[in-house]
Design a protein that fits this description.
Blueprint lengths: L2 H14 L15 E6 L3 H16 L4 E6 L2 H10 L4 E7 L4 H6 L4 E18 L18 E2 L6 H12 L6 E2 L3 H13 L5 E6 L2 H5 L2 E3 L11 E8 L2 H4 L1 H9 L4 H12 L4 H11 L1 H8 L11
Parallel strand pairs: 1-2, 5-6, 5-7
Antiparallel strand pairs: 3-9, 4-7, 4-8, 4-9
Helix pairs in contact: 2-11, 10-11
């Protein structure tokens, strides 16, 4: 596909992404926590983990809503949602952070070793993004159009003068294309990132990026609507305390991936990690009214 026509299609896709069901009105702003998330593996994992802990230990009612990254920032900025746990800082989501600067609370990092870029199976004889020019002319399997890794990939395709088509897929669809290619030992390039169960299930490698369009390392932050910490201090404190090590998040992602219901994987992970969960929730249970 020619670059000019592809850029037009990409721009049109961005215009229509986020057309979702109407936002649910919140019923009780004092006891109900409204979390938004995307279909990215770590977003699902972190959100469902927070949901279970908020409900089980802090006795909040939790509402979750799956949407796209543009709607996530809009919902948090306007107060229609309380929090989102998958903001990549400082590069991948820089455009959204700049657009909504001052319209949200940053509750801090929940993971310190994130990375995104173009990923290939280890058996492919290529090490750099520009090295794809003479080796790979097939489509690159991407995710939703508004994701930061997709914007960076578009920039990389232009910067490195690559004519590859960039497919707009969901995270599960991208993962399935990669799985099938590996099963047949075929060449494939995907938009990849860590943490993600794919990076630990298969032998994959990031392609080197001489122009540094993709950053080597980022952090994942939790953001909340303005006033959330004041309105719901116990919930905000829990979200601040949820900080995952590489081992913690990898095991959580794996347990969720192998479970039919993501919540089953979360419950299994909690049972296996009681010590850190206890530290997160310590002192945050609601006070009981004393009966004389």
């Amino acid at each position: 596909m020619k670059k000019r026509s592809f850029l037009l299609l990409f721009a049109l896709a961005v215009m229509f992404v986020g057309c979702d069901a109407p936002v649910r009105e919140r019923e009780d702003k004092e006891t109900e926590v409204y979390l938004v998330y995307t279909d990215w593996a770590e977003s699902v994992a972190l959100t469902y983990l927070a949901q279970v802990l908020l409900e089980r230990h802090l006795e909040y009612d939790v509402v979750t809503r799956l949407t796209d990254i543009e709607t996530v920032f809009e919902d948090v900025a306007t107060g229609r949602a309380d929090a989102f746990m998958d903001v990549w800082v400082p590069h991948t989501h820089a455009s959204f952070l700049e657009e909504y600067d001052g319209q949200y609370e940053d509750l801090g990092p929940n993971y310190h070793h994130a990375r995104a870029g173009l990923v290939v199976p280890a058996y492919m004889p290529v090490e750099t993004i520009p090295g794809l020019a003479n080796l790979y002319d097939q489509p690159i399997a991407g995710i939703d159009t508004s994701a930061g890794v997709m914007r960076n990939t578009m920039e990389a395709l232009l910067a490195y003068d690559l004519d590859n088509e960039l497919l707009v897929l969901s995270d599960p669809e991208m993962a399935e294309k990669l799985r099938e290619a590996i099963r047949r030992r075929e060449p494939i390039v995907v938009t990849g990132w860590v943490p993600h169960w794919l990076m630990y299930r298969y032998d994959l490698k990031f392609l080197d990026d001489p122009l540094e369009i993709f950053m080597e390392q980022e952090q994942i932050h939790t953001i909340a609507r303005t006033g959330f910490t004041e309105d719901m201090p116990r919930a905000a404190e829990l979200l601040k305390r949820i900080v995952m090590s590489e081992n913690h998040i990898n095991s959580l992602l794996y347990m969720i991936h192998r479970s039919e219901d993501p919540l089953d994987g979360v419950h299994e992970w909690i049972e296996d990690n009681q010590s850190i969960v206890n530290r997160w929730v310590r002192g945050l249970a609601p006070e009981r009214e004393k009966i004389m």
